[in-house]
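Extended Data, record Transport permease protein
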Amino acid sequence: MSTTRPAPTGALNLSRTTATAARVLRQLRHDPRTVALMLLVPCLMLLLLRYVFDGSPRTFDTIGASLLGIFPLITMFLVTSIATLRERTSGTLERLLAMPLGKGDLIAGYALAFGTLAIIQSALATGLAVWFLGLDVTGSPWLLLLVALLDALLGTALGLFVSAFAASEFQAVQFMPAVIFPQLLLCGLFTPRDAMHPVLEAVSDVLPMSYAVDGMNEVLKHTDMTAAFVRDVLVVAGCALLVLGLGAATLRRRTA
């Protein structure tokens, strides 16, 4: 009787990780609508926002930097969760786990592939906001790009994680109100976090999107890199790594 060899559980293997990433990128190349969603929608949202506040450019400066980080996070969360779930439901993930491919290699490969697109997405959105839409920031635009990239990677990690708990693409979309919307309301975009009810402020202190918005606001207000900015980017990066680890832990075969 033949048995399926379990995937190795050791350290990450660079060749297996890059091979997984290359496979995902090849698949995405044949799905132009998904690529357009990831790369163009954040830019279109920023463009729309700029002209919504055409009579009040200062308002765009105030919230534009925050949304520069939030839009890529939401987009990458949505696309990654659906794309990864499609791999699960189509049986592709099942076949991959039957190969000598570790769970860490698989998750890292997905993160590398979507992270590559996140870099392009963040660069396009940041360049559009700063150099074409006139977003007025005190600090370096490169720091804005750094936070936007980390936010997109966090969205990728969250999407990989929640895909384990959805049985259909519709269910994956349903996770957005549960995972993204509370963070959007409590991140300080609509009102300062210290002006919220103490319970809500305490909850916002443990949500990664709060630190993404805080990091963007630090670049908006300060010419130099501040200690608060370093703290914010470390928290966002740490949350992304933690969620990727949880995603690897929930990755399992659905059949014996």
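Summary. The chain is about 75% helix and 0% strand.
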